[in-house]
Amino acid sequence: MAEGHRAVSVLYQALLTGLVLSLVTRRSEEEAAEFVFQLFRRQHLEKFLPGLAKLGLDRLPPAVACAQYHFLSNQMGGVKTEYAYESDRKAWVRYPPPRWIWDGAAICGIPSRVNAAILHGWHGHNGVSLGNPRLGFVCTGQTVDGHPGLEGYYLEHDRELAEDEHVRFASEEAMPEADPANAPRLDAKAWPAERLDTVVARYAMEYVRTALPVLLGLLGPADTRSVLGRAARLIGMQYFDETARLLGIGDSGPAAFARYLAALAAAQGEQVEVTSEPGRARVLQKGWRLARGLEPLDPAAFEAWAELWHGALAAHDRRLRLAVTRAAGAVDFAITSR
């Protein structure tokens, strides 16, 4: 199942990156930055305070708690991270290259403003959520600007910060060397390897889950269907080979693609039933975990998401047909020969 979770992570990570690039190139840098800001602010409001408690960090000094939270939560999702403690009022976090969110050559297409929207959406709001108006984040480098990683520190100032001071940029500063021996660690009993395998998939899924309502609010249903649907189809085509290899699927035909869909669905936490006969196969997915807690969503979100699987099928065997429908909460995939 670890390979399944990895395949889910690869697919949804690429979909997030592809979506942001689509907004940059087909809409505008401004709209892409606003999307990223809203995405990370929504994630922050849903996950930051519960995550601090879940990781046992909520009693640490605010700056230290924040830096350790970003170190641990991102590391659990498969992101390279480093941590350095200076004092109870100043602690660093760094995301060395390669950057998880802008995988591969995609980083060349991400404007500085779009990347900075991550910090404004999440990092700069930590003090607000903690009820500490003196806590801010100082960014000392962004990978998209050619620096050797996205890095910065949480600092508890001697005064309350204005709204525009929650995130500050200071590229003349640099993070001290991280000492892995002093980095925070997860409780191995609470977080065994099997649970961490699941987190890798959920981490990437949560970004796409959050993106659905954000996109609908920002673009409306028609443009969400167009922009997200196009990105999803392209990502499905581009990443089918890699994800199929991870899942051990090398043959062709309707039954093979049904096994592919079922394996990914199971790794996403879905219950599935698979039936097949010569020339056709069906996968019945009992729910749609990606939209859990978001219903009712405009149908455009589901239709755009379904393009991911149309793209994958085009790479698997362009001579096959796929119908993806949803009724009573279940998702029905029907694969047939033309």
Detailed description of the structure:
With 338 residues, this protein is of the alpha+beta class. The chain has a domain at 2-182: Trafficking protein particle complex subunit 3 (Muramoyl-pentapeptide Carboxypeptidase, domain 2), CATH 3.30.1380.20. 49% of the residues lie in helices and 17% in strands. It is built from 9 helices and 9 strands. It has helices spanning 2-26, 29-54, 62-76, 112-121, 126-129, 193-219, 221-247, 254-267, 299-316, and strands at 82-87, 90-95, 135-141, 150-156, 167-169, 272-277, 280-285, 320-327, 330-337. A 5-stranded mixed beta sheet has the order 1-2-4-3-5. Helix 2 packs antiparallel against helix 6. The longest helix is centred in the middle third of the chain and has 27 residues, at 193-219. The chain is elongated, with a radius of gyration of 21 Å. The model has no long low-confidence stretch (mean pLDDT 96).
What characteristics describe this protein?
single chain, alpha+beta, Muramoyl-pentapeptide Carboxypeptidase, domain 2, 5-stranded mixed sheet, 4-stranded antiparallel sheet
Could you please say which CATH topology of the domain at 2-182 applies here?
Muramoyl-pentapeptide Carboxypeptidase, domain 2
DSSP strand tally = 9
Radius of gyration of CA atoms, rounded to a whole number = 21 Å
- The CATH superfamily of the domain at 2-182 turns out to be Trafficking protein particle complex subunit 3
Shape: elongated
Distance from N terminus to C terminus (CA atoms, Å) equals: 32 Å
**Main sheet, how many strands, which sense, barrel?**
5 strands, mixed
